[in-house]
């Protein structure tokens, strides 16, 4: 049976459920981790809606619960185990509740062993390479009343559909903005990172397919897209007709009706002059680059297998800023990589000042079994990691505040994201991704571009007064 037939079969089962119970079964999808998982959850939820499920408010109420998981750090996994533990008691009261675990966690052998040993109430398990087969797995579980576990080691090469996104059924968590995956996997093998092992080798989607998806999203009201990939700078290698990420950006910026284009993540070692020029020349591409540095110490960068030194990173920033003055640069930083000494950490504190980041995601190092770094013996004690982490966060917050302060009394272009029901209060984002709260008597809609005068700022947001709407 093809996937479409499984969708129809599950739909029939949902109709039967309705005949018996007087309501359609409820589903609850929770996502852990990155924006790529968010996008894949939208698609899983879309499939479920097509199959007849309705949205439930929470796990307790739902007849089917999906946890779309992340394994980049141990904390994310612990949260999922905690939730699965809780669902065990729910399942005693509701034995027909279907519990689904998918995404990155099941790609790890230890997780599968743990699920088999201690979480036997989980009904369906699948990984990152076969999410589009969810309707079949669900059908098998619902009709055969058995656990269904299907985790693949890589994409099935002759099954183009498996990497081409399961697009036909999708839902969106936000009306005006959407993520679009441009490539899967990662070939960089940073020594601490589990991603290449659970998401496989880099594989780019064709520009035609990406443009088709974006055109469909724009016709559906989307004004802003985030192009997603673990390392978008190496986009296009290996395609029948190879094209660069810069060329892709230029093509996408020609889509009528699209207002803003963002992308993440860029790897410093692959960011080309051509890409800098494309960001500069395409009006719709937001003047913001997320460029993970990870550490300021050359010794640690080498042990991380990042492929650049602190000096090279700073030189790259200089080139970017010379071409695009005022561009915002954000980053990722890991604290407490094995062997990190106080002097290495000082290098990190120093480089973030020199780089003048406008924001950063900061992480405490989490050993991931199977990565080279997990075998290193010189672990940094937890208390030291925490103490350095706090100092880093303080320094980053100060930089972020300083960045926001620059906007005080100026008029900025904001894309409206949300409004509160009663207070005429809106939130939106600047081109460089700073959150802005403002009031307006006008009935604004998510996706509108407006001018707002900034009247105040805090570390994580700014406050302003609405001036005018730039479009309708
Ligand atoms: N421990 C802590 N942080 C990690 N990251 C990736 N792997 C680990 C790990 N083992 C961080 C990196 C990466 C971001 C997505 O997650 O900073 O850029
Ligand atoms: Fe992980 Fe490095 Fe690939 Fe990013 S570039 S996903 S940190 S291996």
Notable characteristics:
single chain, 472 residues, alpha/beta, binds iron/sulfur cluster
How does this model look, in words?
- The structure is a single chain.
- With 472 residues, this protein is an alpha/beta fold.
- The protein is built from 14 helices and 19 strands.
- It has helices at 3-21, 35-50, 74-93, 109-118, 134-144, 160-163, 195-199, 207-219, 245-253, 273-281, 298-303, 310-323, 342-355, 382-405, and strands at 26-31, 54-55, 64-69, 98-103, 124-126, 148-150, 177-181, 183-184, 203-204, 224-228, 260-264, 288-290, 328-335, 359-364, 411-419, 425-430, 435-439, 449-457, 461-469.
- The strands form 5 sheets. The protein has a 6-stranded parallel β-sheet with strand order 2-1-3-4-5-6, with helices on both faces.
- The structure holds 5'-deoxyadenosine and iron/sulfur cluster (SF4).
- The site of 5'-deoxyadenosine has 12 residues, from strand 13.
Topology readout:
Blueprint: H1 3-21, E1 26-31, H2 35-50, E2 54-55, E3 64-69, H3 74-93, E4 98-103, H4 109-118, E5 124-126, H5 134-144, E6 148-150, H6 160-163, E7 177-181, E8 183-184, H7 195-199, E9 203-204, H8 207-219, E10 224-228, H9 245-253, E11 260-264, H10 273-281, E12 288-290, H11 298-303, H12 310-323, E13 328-335, H13 342-355, E14 359-364, H14 382-405, E15 411-419, E16 425-430, E17 435-439, E18 449-457, E19 461-469
Parallel strand pairs: 1-2, 1-3, 3-4, 4-5, 5-6, 7-10, 10-11, 12-13, 13-14, 17-19
Antiparallel strand pairs: 8-9, 15-16, 15-18, 16-17, 18-19
Helix pairs in contact: 1-5, 9-10, 13-14
Bound molecules: 5'-deoxyadenosine (5AD) and iron/sulfur cluster (SF4).
